[in-house]
Specification:
Length: 363
């Protein structure tokens, strides 16, 4: 009986251990991302160790010291109230944990301060831990305004597409579309949103845009806001929507490369050198020295050219011809043209020629 009792006890302990592990994992999952600091207070120039768990595996995080914030309210002023120049990036391990040294720097606004950790890419997640920058000014937090509050009720999307001009470097443009609801106690009239565009891991550039309309308490509205990038922009972008100091939504945007610009420069690199070569050859042909004698180097003399030209009278060509024969194998005395123009063979015209008949008995 004793061995059986020991086996049962071992089985009971194993089951309890499994239940405790599952409960701890569930609690950690329910708590979400967490942040821990090695020291809750430090002066400028020092450093602290920031660690955490419960984050997404292999996620890229940004760690910042931010002012005018508490963990319960987050960072109302956004990253504009943080010491962005002294922030640090870290990547979580396979279990969603991280640890990173962070230099202490004074934020641009007074404390109370927090160490703010947020994801850079992918699903949005953030966590804060209370921190005091020694020697930095401390002021009360601004009163939280009561009234209308907007919340996103649907997934965001970007409507629109690029055209031929975008293919040649025109600014890409889209329309950010989402549905928001008023979860506050008063109406929201003509809300002013901040639309930000971020390239890669860089901080977004915010642009204020006002939506015309009124959203009553418990009501909803379809929001459409234009988004435009700079000319020639390409790569991975993230479009963010902020209202009341809080980011409501983020939407990735993959912008294709403007291949028309590449084609244009390729044609320029081919056409310009060819044109310069043709111009250079024409200049060389104009300025090169000509041989003496005009057209004699081509074996054609001017009189013969005049005779062949249409519209030139033979008499004019004859007057232009030289008076002497140009045949080199005739001497001036033996030139056939000197015999009065006769072209027949020479013969004897003397009176004693056998071919001349004579009368008999003449004296």
């Amino acid at each position: 009986m004793r061995p059986s009792g020991r086996v049962r006890w071992a089985v009971l302990m194993a089951v309890c251990a499994l239940l405790l592990t599952a409960t701890a994992g569930t609690a950690a999952a329910a708590d979400g991302p967490s942040v821990k600091l090695s020291n809750s207070q430090a002066g400028t120039g020092g450093s602290i160790t920031v660690s955490g768990g419960g984050w997404r595996a292999r996620a890229l995080l940004m760690i910042l010291v931010c002012g005018q914030a508490v963990p319960s309210r987050g960072v109302p002023g956004g990253t504009d109230s943080c010491a962005n120049a002294d922030g640090r990036a870290v990547t979580t391990d396979g279990k969603g944990r991280f640890s990173r040294q962070l230099p202490v720097a004074e934020p641009p606004v007074p404390c109370p301060c927090v160490v703010h950790v947020a994801t850079v890419t992918g699903a949005k997640a953030e966590a804060d831990a209370t921190f005091q920058v020694a020697g930095h000014a401390v002021e009360p937090l601004p009163a939280e305004t009561e009234g209308g509050r907007l919340s996103v009720l649907s997934d965001t999307r970007l409507d629109g597409s690029g055209g031929l001009l975008t293919w040649f470097g025109a600014p890409p443009a889209r329309t950010l579309v989402l549905t928001v609801g008023n979860v506050g106690t008063s109406a929201v009239k003509d809300p002013v949103f901040q639309v930000g565009t971020a390239h890669g891991v860089f901080a977004p550039q915010w642009d204020e845009q006002q939506w015309r309309g009124t959203i009553r308490p418990g009501g909803r509205a379809r929001i459409e806001l234009p988004v435009e990038l700079t000319g020639g922009a390409h790569g991975e972008y993230t479009v963010s929507l902020k209202y009341g100091g809080k980011v409501l939504a983020e939407q990735p945007w993959g912008v294709g490369r403007p291949w028309g610009v590449t084609l244009f420069w390729a044609l320029v690199l081919l056409v310009v050198p060819a044109a310069l070569f043709r111009i250079g050859m024409a200049v060389v042909d104009r300025v090169r020295p000509r041989p003496a004698g005009g057209l004699r180097h081509r074996g054609l003399r001017l009189p013969e050219l005049a005779l062949r030209l249409p519209g030139v009278k033979p008499s004019t060509a004859a007057h232009a011809a030289p008076p002497t024969s140009t045949l080199p194998w005739f001497t001036p005395d033996a030139d056939p043209g000197a015999a009065g123009g006769r072209l027949s063979a020479p013969h004897d015209d003397s009176p004693t020629s056998p071919t001349t008949p004579t009368r008999e008995g003449s004296t």
